[in-house]
Design brief:
about 525 residues, alpha+beta, Nucleotidyltransferase, domain 5, 2 domains, globular, binds adenosine monophosphate
Length: about 525
């Protein structure tokens, strides 16, 4: 049975599997590249192109191209109308997954149906669930959703199975930034704490360069129209900017030609200028890293054996330089574009192996292990490995202060609490003879825990009945259970009658029926 790990990135995606000697290896796409741009070109309703062709098409047909969709996962978003219909983020991601798995089948000759998909550690429940649904819409069996730093640590940990280590993962991808502290002990992986910003990534550096190029062009041609007002030029500038940014990781200066409104301008950008105009973006990652270092310290991890740089944007020399200057770290670039997919492939393999063993299908499990050429020792380590992780955000319910009757969020689970978490707290009615309590489940929306309602998203709600004629303060017990993979179940119980309210978090707007109908419609589409 072949299983695959998919790093479904904001700007680029990557697929890996275990090769014939049990090593994680990247699966090339049909164009022969290790990574595929996460860009979708809707050429017609039933012919869709994903990858570098789509990325290049964005210049000519920006209205038919969707990119950076990962930033919208779990949000209330639909694309503008394209060929008479709109797409939700799950569908766009499903199209990317279709391309990735179709190419993986072509490359390996195996069916690519069973997959693990990675998400940033900072993703909340809605985003994780939307990612799982994207997989379902693509017709895949999603074995699990795994955090990117965990996948990177698996890839890294496997390289040094006998050493205990504390690792800080600094992951700056195309659209998201995450930093996570992980310990590897006796082959077990534990996430100590995690923090991040899912609106900060390489694409923001590109945007700064786009603005810079446009400004320089306008300075040279003050009479020309604004290049940023023209979608075609803007797209062109984005492509130029990304190439320029990548080149500035090795070269110290680069010159490009900007063509717009029938004029040309030659613009030279040095690495120093580039670093100057993006200084505040690096500062934001440093601030978050400082927060995580402090949090790790509070949790007993005060030194790091390794600082791993993952995500393509960590190739920018300024990242390493700032981490050295601010923290005295000695960061290592760890296969920045590929390690997440490789770790996910390893995890997909291990998880499937463990599930086969626990359901008594030893024959199948052994066959898998033999096929990957794993020794008995490696098999034993694999079946015993444990992964422990923490909550990426805080969760609570909306409550009312007794004294001034204002709303606030009472937290039951805090960011970085160990998972699985199981917490029960007592709440009470506020009025005499109150006949119901509305339980509104809230998830932290901003970067920090806050009891202000507006800094949280409501992710589920339900009403529990209270027997008649009970005094104010009549108690109910509310229980939050958050699983290791980030699924939240909430229960409320009225203790006298035993009436119970069960809420499983309702996410992202799509019902099972909608997922099924999207799956059917996308199955009929040609995706290449
Ligand atoms: P990922 O999501 O990990 O694939 O990271 C993709 C991001 O890394 C994109 O914003 C790329 O432009 C960026 N990237 C890739 N290679 C380089 C490079 N050599 N220098 C700077 N950024 C890069």
């Amino acid at each position: 049975m072949a299983v695959f790990g998919i790093d479904l990135g904001t700007t680029y995606s990557c697929v890996a599997h275990l090769d014939d000697v049990g090593r994680p290896a990247v699966v090339r796409n049909a164009e022969g590249a290790d990574t595929t741009p996460s860009v979708v070109y809707l050429e017609s309703v039933d012919n869709i192109v994903v990858g570098s062709v789509a990325k290049n098409t964005a210049v000519i047909h920006p209205d038919l191209v969707v990119s950076l969709i990962k930033r919208e996962m779990g949000q209330d978003y639909v694309t503008p109308e394209i060929h008479g219909r709109t797409y939700v983020p799950e569908e766009v991601s499903a199209l990317i997954l279709r391309k990735l798995t179709a190419d993986a089948e072509l490359f390996t000759g195996d069916s690519a149906n069973d997959v693990v998909i990675t998400v940033p550690a900072y993703f909340g429940i809605a985003e994780r669930e939307a990612t799982r649904r994207a997989g379902e819409i693509a017709g895949l069996n999603v074995i699990d959703i795994v955090s990117e730093p965990i996948a990177a640590a698996i890839d890294y940990g496997v390289l040094r199975p006998d050493e205990d280590r504390s690792i800080l993962v600094y992951d700056l991808g195309g659209g998201t930034f995450d930093t996570t502290v992980i310990t590897i002990r006796g082959g077990d992986i534990e996430v100590v704490c995690t923090d991040g910003d899912h609106n900060l990534g390489g694409a923001d550096w590109d945007l700064r360069l786009v603005e810079h190029l446009a400004k320089d062009f306008t300075a040279q041609h003050p009479d020309a129209t604004d290049p940023l007002e023209d979608r075609e030029t803007e797209q062109e500038l984005r492509t130029l900017a990304e190439d320029m940014k990548k080149d500035l990781s090795s070269a110290t200066q680069r010159t490009v030609r900007v063509v717009h409104d029938g004029r040309r301008a030659t613009v030279e950008v040095s690495r120093d200028v580039f670093e100057e105009i993006t200084h505040d973006l690096v500062d934001r990652t440093v601030d978050i890293t400082r927060r995580i270092v402090e949090e790790a310290g509070r949790r007993g991890v005060t030194t790091f054996d390794d600082v791993l740089l993952v995500g393509g944007a960590t190739r920018m020399p300024v990242v390493r330089a700032r981490l050295v200057a601010e923290f005295g770290f000695d960061p290592k670039l760890h296969d920045p574009d590929l390690s997440v997919a490789k770790g996910a492939a390893r995890y997909a393999f291990e998880e499937t192996y463990r599930r086969l063993l626990s359901s008594g299908e030893t024959g199948k499990a052994n066959e898998m292990a033999d096929r990957a050429g794993l020794s008995d020792k490696a098999q034993e380590a694999m079946s015993n490995r444990q992964i422990r992780t923490v909550a990426s955000r805080s969760f609570g319910i909306k409550a009312v202060r007794r004294d001034n009757r204002t709303d606030f969020v009472a937290h039951l689970i805090h960011a970085n609490d160990q998972l699985p978490a199981d917490v029960t707290e007592e709440f009470g009615t506020i009025d005499d003879d109150q006949r119901a309590i509305l339980v509104e489940v809230m998830e932290q929306a901003g970067p920090r825990e806050s009891d202000l309602v507006e800094n949280n998203n409501r992710i589920a709600e339900g009403e529990i009945e209270i027997p008649p004629r009970k005094p104010a303060g009549w108690p109910i017990d509310v229980t939050f259970r958050l699983s290791t993979s980030g699924l939240l179940r909430v229960a409320a119980v009225e203790k006298e009658t035993g009436v119970r309210l069960e809420l499983s978090v309702q996410v992202g707007g799509m019902t099972d029926e909608q997922v099924e109908s999207a799956r059917k419609s996308i199955a009929l589409t040609r995706v290449s």
